[in-house]
């Protein structure tokens, strides 16, 4: 009897309900952040605690002090150090970080400092990798300083568009680090990416847009980002996670 190999599916979530649905859908682990609408930033400790209370799969915490680029000043770096220590002490299974220098290379020295604070926790290099100047050089640097995973779309808008670089990363990594394909990931995308790239680890949010429960809606007032509808909620759909999590080869 041939034993099928199942993919590893990481669900990116920014709420307790999304985390619960991701687990119910069969996700292997969570990446916890806040504000997925802007690509994700560091979550609050209360959100982390509630996710831990209501789920029991591994949680890696995204640490990103603000929206925008990945070149951080001294204050932001000190914030990152405190967050790494806080979430490691809180029992997170891993941390997700990424820093760049102004020239587009990985900020190896400061990431090494953060990695030392994590002890034996899992360490993911997030999609700062996708805007670095040389992905193959960055791959070797990430392995050398102790990352376990690189989260990447192959330096393109979606993983399918970046499939050529993803394939090269998978081949050059030679099992030394997990290549975690991201962006535009769905069951359909995974089925195409597996035979092309050989990658068996995938990262998705499985989000659907839900209508707000608010009945009264004030017109003409925007509190957040201009042009965004503030009466919708993005939430992980367990059906989308379940469809993707069941894929095997």
What can you tell me about this protein's structure?
By secondary structure, the protein is α/β, with parallel strands linked by helices. It has one domain: TIM Barrel, CATH 3.20.20.380. Helices cover 35% and strands 18% of the residues. The chain has helices at 16-24, 45-54, 74-89, 108-118, 135-145, 163-173, 187-197, 238-245; strands at residues 8-13, 29-32, 59-62, 94-97, 122-125, 149-152, 178-182, 201-204, 207-211, 232-236. Strands 1-2-3-4-5-6-7-8 form an 8-stranded parallel β-barrel, surrounded by 5 helices. A two-stranded antiparallel sheet has the order 9-10. α1 runs parallel beside α2 (45-54) and α3 (74-89) packs parallel to α4. The radius of gyration is 18 Å and the shape is globular. The mean pLDDT is 94.
Which tags fit this structure?
TIM Barrel; 8-stranded parallel barrel; PF03932 family protein CutC; 8 helices; two-stranded antiparallel ribbon; 10 strands; cytoplasm; alpha/beta; 249 residues; CutC-like
String of helices and strands: EHEHEHEHEHEHEHEEEH
Terminal CA distance: 14 Å
Shape: globular
Secondary structure category: alpha/beta
Q: Which CATH architecture is right?
A: Alpha-Beta Barrel
**Total separate domains:** 1
CATH hierarchy, class: Alpha Beta
Overall pLDDT level? 94
Uncertain segments: none
In which order are the strands of the major sheet placed? 1-2-3-4-5-6-7-8
CATH topology annotation: TIM Barrel
Tell me the number of strands.
10
- The portion of residues forming beta strands comes to 15-25%
Biggest β-sheet strands, sense, barrel: 8 strands, parallel, barrel
CATH superfamily: Copper homeostasis (CutC) domain
């Amino acid at each position: 009897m041939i034993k099928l190999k199942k993919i590893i599916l990481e669900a990116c979530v920014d709420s307790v309900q999304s985390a619960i649905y991701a687990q119910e859908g069969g996700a292997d682990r969570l990446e916890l952040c806040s504000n997925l609408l802007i690509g994700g930033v560091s979550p609050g400790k209360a959100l982390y605690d509630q996710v831990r209370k209501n789920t029991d799969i591994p949680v890696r915490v995204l640490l990103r002090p603000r929206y925008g680029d990945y070149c951080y000043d001294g204050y932001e770096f000190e914030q990152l150090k405190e967050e790494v220590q806080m979430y490691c002490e809180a029992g997170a299974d891993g941390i997700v970080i990424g820093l760049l220098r102004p020239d587009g290379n990985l900020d190896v020295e400061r990431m090494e400092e953060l990695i030392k604070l994590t002890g034996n926790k899992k360490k993911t290099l997030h999609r700062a990798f996708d805007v670095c100047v040389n992905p193959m050089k960055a791959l070797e640097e990430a392995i050398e300083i102790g990352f376990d995973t690189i989260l990447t779309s192959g330096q393109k808008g979606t993983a399918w568009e970046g499939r050529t670089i993803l394939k090269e990363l998978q081949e050059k990594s030679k099992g030394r680090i997990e290549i975690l394909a991201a962006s535009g990931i769905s069951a359909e995308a995974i089925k195409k990416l597996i035979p092309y790239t050989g990658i068996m680890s995938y990262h998705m949010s499985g989000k659907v847009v839900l209508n707000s429960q608010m009945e009264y809606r004030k017109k003409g007032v925007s509190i957040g980002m201009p042009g965004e509808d503030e009466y919708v909620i993005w939430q992980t759909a367990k059906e989308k996670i379940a469809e993707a999590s069941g894929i095997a080869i």
